[in-house]
Write a structure and sequence with these properties.
This protein is α+β, with helices and mostly antiparallel strands and 198 residues long. Helix content is 20%, strand content 25%.
């Protein structure tokens, strides 16, 4: 006669919750498989971006810039990675909010103007005109004979901006071709130029 088979009885709590425990184990197994199969997340890099839309000629302050994380492969060449690289630099062109700042975005000293251009101070004839001439504005400069001295002139800095020459000087920094700069230097007075703001 065979001896009676030993019966192992699970605790009552385990027996009552076998299905929920099995479901939980299945869920964990599926989750582990999904994590193992998930694509590798690309390395992220923090880059310096503009905090708002800024015109050309803006001298950047800490309030003008921020940081954003982007995939390493999307970082443009020459991108600024630290805010102190941008603070104090001058924008070479207008930028929209959230633009990544690079070495090409800013200019200093002789690089303030684009290649083939120079920067000159344009005296403004009145406070009314000075109020209209803002960084990033586009001007047409007309001579006394009605001819165009220069068209689509880019304003880099204006008297009423922090990056300007001061309200008392009432002059704007503009970017022109060298031959236009020579013509402006030869004019006898401020009134010899008519400024048309676009």
């Amino acid at each position: 006669m065979k001896p009676p088979r030993a019966v192992v009885r699970l605790p009552r709590v385990v027996r009552l919750r076998r299905r929920p425990l099995a479901a939980a184990c299945t869920f964990l197994a599926v989750l582990a498989a999904l994590l193992a199969l998930a694509p590798h997340q690309p390395d992220a890099v923090m880059v310096v971006v503009t905090g708002r839309a800024l015109p050309a000629g803006t001298v950047l302050t800490a309030a003008d810039v921020g940081a954003r994380s982007i995939p390493a492969e999307a970082v443009p060449q020459g991108a600024m990675l630290q805010a102190d690289q941008a603070v104090g630099a001058t924008l070479a062109a207008p930028l929209t909010a959230g633009s990544i700042l690079t070495d090409a975005s800013v200019a200093a000293g002789e690089r303030l103007a684009r290649p083939g251009f120079v920067v000159v101070a344009l005296p403004l004839p009145s406070s009314a005109i000075a109020a209209l001439v803002k960084p990033g504005a586009v001007l047409d400069l007309l001579g006394t004979d009605g001819g165009t001295l220069a068209a689509e002139v880019r304003v880099l800095s204006a008297p009423d901006s922090d990056s300007g020459l001061g309200a008392s000087s009432r002059a704007a920094l503009i970017e022109v071709e060298p031959q236009v700069a020579s013509k402006l230097a030869q004019l006898s007075s401020v009134d010899a130029v008519t400024i048309a703001v676009r």
